[in-house]
From TrEMBL:
Keywords, sorted A to Z: Membrane, Transmembrane, Transmembrane helix
Species name: Nonomuraea deserti
Membrane spanning residue stretches: 20-39, 45-70, 82-102, 108-124
Name this polypeptide is given: Uncharacterized protein
Presence of the UniProt keyword Membrane in the record: yes
Length: 148
């Protein structure tokens, strides 16, 4: 059994955010795949929507799996989370840029950033890198000193 006490304080909200992103992404992607399945085979845009929903489903499943495995301190979990959250952040920024260019920005376009950026920042910190490498960080992610 994994020792839950060893999880730094700042990784707990990041993990919760990853679970939330994962569950909402799985639900949303499944919903869109069901909608695409109801389209006619040759209907315009249905293939692209199916591909995007499948990619979103893969990202959501990956984040959920990483959230489950995070307490085990596996270094590849951190790298995977950084990669997926980085792609989500880049995609959201590109979407906002295109929306600004066409003057059609909607407030909901920042929701992916609200979830991905804090997780990304937490995982990039040197304290998180040290923790995933198996060492004890000098300063815990919450800012409290662990060692003198």
């Amino acid at each position: 059994m994994v020792d839950r006490q060893s999880l730094p304080k700042a990784l707990s909200p990041a993990r919760t955010s990853m679970f939330l992103q994962g569950f909402l992404g799985i639900a949303g992607s499944t919903f869109f795949l069901v909608i695409v399945a109801s389209f006619d085979a040759g209907e315009e845009g249905s293939g692209l929507l199916a591909v995007l929903a499948t990619i979103s489903l893969v990202f959501a499943a990956t984040l959920t799996a990483c959230a489950v495995l995070l307490p085990r301190r596996l270094p590849w979990v951190r790298v995977t989370v950084i990669a997926v959250e980085g792609l989500i952040t880049a995609s959201a920024l590109i979407g906002i840029a295109f929306a600004l260019a066409y003057d059609s920005v909607h407030p909901t376009q920042v929701i992916p950033l609200a979830f991905s950026v804090p997780v990304l920042v937490t995982m990039i910190r040197s304290d998180a890198r040290t923790w995933f490498a198996g060492g004890e960080p000098r300063v815990e992610l919450s800012g409290e000193k662990l060692l003198p």
